[in-house]
Structure formats: C-alpha cells, structure tokens
Amino acid sequence: MAKRANPLLDLSAHPVIAHRGTSGAAPENTLAAFELAERQGADAFELDVRLSADGAPVVMHDPTLERTTDGKGLVRAQSLVDLRTLDAGANFSTDGGATFPFRGLGLQVPTLGEVLWAFPRMSILVEVKEPEAQEAVKRVLVQEEAVDRCVVASEHRETLEAFSEPPFSRAAAAAEISELYWGLVLRRKVPPPRYDLLSVPLRYRGITVPTRRFVAAARGFGCPVHVWTINDAATAQRLWARGVAGVVTDLPSAIRQATS
C-alpha cells in the first residue's frame, strides 16, 4: 500500500483538523469523537496525550478527570485499568447540562495506540501535555508505524526533545512561535526553524497571531501554519486567503462546507 502524504506538512493543502475529534458534537478525545470527525470529512485529528500511573500514553487533555469523566483526581494517579472503568462520555452536553446523550454508553478513555490502530490512514497532530510522556509517545508511534503520518506538538520546547530529529516531525513550541512573531515585528533576523509546522491561536491576548506577514515568513521557511480553534466557514475562508494551511475545528462538517 502506498503511503499517504501527510496533509499537515503540505504547504499547498488546506486540511480540516478535528480538535480532539468532533468535540463540538461528541465527547472530546474519545473514539466516538474521532469516528464522527472521519465521517464528517476531517483530513486530520488533533489529540492530547498524558501518562497513566503505570506509564500508558492515554488520550486526555486535562491533568484531572472531573471535567470529561465521572472520575476524580489526577490522570497520573490512575492506572490504565482504573481509567478504563471511567465513563468518558459522562459530562458531555450540548444544551447546557439539560441532557447528557453519551452518558452510560460505554465510552472509555482511549490510549494513543488505540486511536492510531483504529484510524490507520489518518494524519494526527499529537499534543504531548507533559515531558514525561515523550518516550512513551515515541515508542507507540514507532510500534504502530505511524511516524510519517503524525506531527508531535507541545506548548513547551522541553517536551519535544525526543522528536527533534528525523524521522519525526514536530510543531513549534510556544517560545518558538513568539520568537518568529516578535522577530518580524521588531525586524530582527529569525534563525532557521527546528520545527516543521506552526499550530497557533487566532488571537493571543488580543493580538492576531497569523498575520499575512507571519504566515508568509513561515511559508518561506517551508512551514505550514495551522490555526485553532475555528468553527465557522467564513473565518476559515479568510485564513486560507491569507496563506494559512489548516484550521483546527470542533466542527469539521461546518468547515468542510467552505471547501466544497
């Protein structure tokens, strides 16, 4: 089987990247949310990884369990077996808590390996939430033969050390994004990047991050810019016209309409 080109790294592509799956319509970071994203035409997933107490890389955004599951306490304090007993759909609601349509349906906290296995052709932006998870993530990407279709991201540069050399691809850390942005503003020379793409917010503290100049500079280095979290087609269209590559969205179907 021929390898599929990774749209996350393609300057000419406009990937629709599902934020924690279709997290606007299904419980985030669950197989149900990823399955829905695939059905809605997402080109890639974004997901978050933390470690369980016994070192398993599990797909969870928060350091604690309360917001998305019926559990309590730290993710890191629970073994994988214990995490398996939690209801990962318990607290999801689209009507302010009047109903919880996924509660009691058996949704579990998945491991990174399970997501890679379940979606063998999907490109994935893997957000590593803690530096201790690097080696476990690296091991799973290699075991699942998923290195070519994944890009590893983190807010902190030290969490990306294990992915700094080929064959791995990594996103810019927050300090590197800031270095490029302010280097352009202050007209300082920006060194060649050690990253492969930039995943940035639309705005940070009231400042628009993906300006035309910022996007053009990144593209000049060969680095696509992906912007989060965009849930309306009109904004996506404006960003694409600006040279942005991908948009990260809670609602892939809404953004897919802008490309059809």
Explain how this protein is built.
This protein is an alpha/beta fold and about 260 residues long. It has a single domain, classed as TIM Barrel (Alpha-Beta Barrel), CATH 3.20.20.190. It contains eight helices and ten strands. The strands form two sheets. Strands 1, 2, 3, 4, 5, 6, 9 and 10 form an eight-stranded mixed β-sheet that branches. A two-stranded antiparallel ribbon has the order 7-8. The radius of gyration is 18 Å and the shape is globular. The model has no long low-confidence stretch (mean pLDDT about 95).
Structural features:
8 helices; eight-stranded mixed beta sheet; alpha/beta; TIM Barrel; 260 residues
Quick rundown:
This protein has 260 residues and is an alpha/beta fold.
Tell me the count of domains. Answer: 1
Oligomer: single chain
Strand content: 15-25%
Question: What summary fits the major beta sheet?
Answer: 8 strands, mixed
Label the overall shape: globular
**How many angstroms separate the termini?**
28 Å
The portion of residues assigned to helices is 25-40%
CATH topology: TIM Barrel
Could you spell the SSE succession in H and E letters? EHEEHHEHEHEEEHEHEH
* Count of runs of 4 or more consecutive helical residues: 8
Q: For the record, what CATH class applies?
A: Alpha Beta
Low-confidence stretches: none
CATH architecture: Alpha-Beta Barrel
Q: What is the SS-derived class? A: alpha/beta
Cα Rg: 18 Å
Q: Tell me the total number of β-strands.
A: 10
Please name the fourth-level CATH homologous superfamily: Phosphatidylinositol (PI) phosphodiesterase
Question: What is the residue-mean pLDDT, rounded to a whole number?
Answer: 96
